[in-house]
Amino acid sequence: MESTASTVEVAEPMTEKAYDGGETISDEGERMQRVVATRTRSEKARVIARVCEDRTRESASEHHKEER
């Protein structure tokens, strides 16, 4: 009996090195690009939310200082 082997490609876990600005460094193509862009957008959204929280806190503490 002759066995037939099939090649299965497995995507490597994404790291900061694996993407830059929504572009993949591999030839994996459009699918990976969409995954990367989605991940990048959600990370940006979290950072923006965190910055807004920090600014709100700073603004509130400055306002509190002015009232004293």
Summarize the structure.
The chain is 56% helix and 6% strand. By secondary structure, it is mostly helical. It has a domain at 21-67.
Structure description:
By secondary structure, the chain is mainly α. It has a domain at 21-67. It contains one helix and two strands. Strands 1-2 form a two-stranded antiparallel ribbon. The chain is rod-shaped and about 60 Å long. The relative contact order is 0.09.
Tell me the number of helical segments per DSSP (H or I, 4 or more residues long): 1
| Mean pLDDT value | 67
How is the largest sheet built, in terms of strand order? 1-2
Shape, per Cα inertia axes = rod-shaped
The description of the largest β-sheet is: 2 strands, antiparallel
- What is the succession of H and E elements? EEH
Strand content: 5-15%
Summarize the amount of helix as a percent range.
55-70%
The helix/strand class is mainly alpha
**Quaternary:** single chain
Q: Round the Cα radius of gyration to an integer and report it.
A: 22 Å
Distance linking N and C termini: 88 Å
User: How many beta-strand segments?
Assistant: 2
Identify low-pLDDT runs. Answer: none
